[in-house]
Write a structure and sequence with these properties.
alpha/beta, TIM Barrel, 8-stranded parallel β-sheet, 3-stranded antiparallel β-sheet, 12 helices, 33% helix, globular
């Protein structure tokens, strides 16, 4: 129970992208974020989420879900009870992260200390090359050829040509790809030899979530990573033996609490970890940095895709993300 009644404030803000990005849902020119702030008169905590269209979320639906909890917030909703009050998704994530922030503030420690993770250190993130024609993707890759790891967004027909064009343009780059549920089993089987020749290190979510049974027993050179196929602890049993890596995104799994549990259980089951994020600001990325500390691959370049990040925010030096400095999310203030 909070020392004083808690108040929840919810706001929304759109952030212009540095360049338009094509997704399965059309062309995006801005990132829409929802911010939740919990205050009790003495302390405050914030979180940020990005509604995921893939799961039927909109800014309005997330705000509506949060609004229904304002009375419960006043009565003492907390980090534990919010896990039962909301399903996995952006609304639970933004509240969960705000609770971690205010709980650390109340305890005069960092969230990393509160979670018994130790001090956060800088991490290297992949940089996303947006889905486009082969020539345009090669052009994007050329402009970012000095980055340590590039992630290519793919979408079905023509994907081999896209990858080959990028590889020819940046022969020394480390490359991973995200198919975003866009392939059929036949396409996956047809594409893998060419992707192997292009030295692709990972294929993320090749088949639609729910079609994973087709992957059982496969022997392939490139590790497969589950994204949309894993939203909770209960999904791990189903994906083991089909994927080697699991991408853990706070907006998808519903917050840092579930994400930390997923990391521990996934590792126990022999899966590697990718720390993924949404197309938002540093406020949403800061909690994911705690997952990145335990990850084999980090994909938290959202702020790099914006025309401008929030200030203050995290410091990106090239593809290296530095932990929060001063008073920001997860730091005592």
């Amino acid at each position: 129970m909070a020392p004083h009644p808690q108040k929840l404030t919810v706001t929304r803000r759109s952030w212009k992208l540095a360049r338009p990005i094509t997704t399965a849902y059309g062309v995006k020119t801005e990132a829409e974020t929802i911010i939740a702030e919990i205050s009790d008169g003495d302390s405050r905590g914030r979180g940020e989420c990005v509604p995921l269209q893939r799961w039927g979320e909109t800014a309005d639906s997330v705000i509506a879900a949060l609004t229904t909890l304002k009375d419960a917030m006043y009565s003492g909703l907390n980090r534990e009870t919010v896990q039962r009050a909301l399903p996995p998704g952006a609304a639970r994530n933004v509240l969960d992260c705000a609770f971690w922030d205010i709980d650390a503030n109340r305890a005069y420690c960092t969230v990393a200390d509160l979670a018994k993770l130790g001090a956060a250190t800088p991490v290297m993130t992949a940089f996303t090359i947006a889905l486009d024609t082969p020539a345009k993707m090669a052009e994007q890759a050329e402009a970012n050829r000095t980055r340590p790891l590039l992630k290519l967004m793919l979408g079905g027909e023509g994907d081999v040509e896209r990858v080959q064009a990028v590889r020819q343009t940046v022969p020394a780059a480390r490359l991973i790809v995200d198919a975003g549920e866009s392939w059929t089993e036949a396409q996956l089987r047809a594409y893998l030899p060419a992707l192997t020749d292009c030295r692709i290190e990972l294929v993320e979510q090749p088949l639609p979530a729910g079609a994973d049974d087709a992957l059982a027993g496969w022997d392939h050179a490139i590790p497969l990573c589950a994204d949309e196929s894993c939203r909770s602890l209960s999904d791990l049993e189903r994906i083991v033996g089909k994927y080697a890596i699991v991408n853990i995104k706070l907006d998808q799994v519903g917050g840092l609490t579930e994400a930390l549990a997923l990391v521990a259980e996934a590792k126990r089951r022999g899966l590697k970890i990718m720390a993924g994020g949404s197309l938002g600001t540093s406020l949403g990325i800061a909690p994911a940095l705690l997952i990145a500390q335990q990850a084999d691959i980090v994909d938290l370049d959202g702020p790099l895709q914006l025309a401008a990040d929030r200030h203050p925010g995290l410091r990106y030096a090239g593809s290296t993300i530095h932990p929060p400095e001063g008073i920001f999310w997860g730091q005592p203030g």
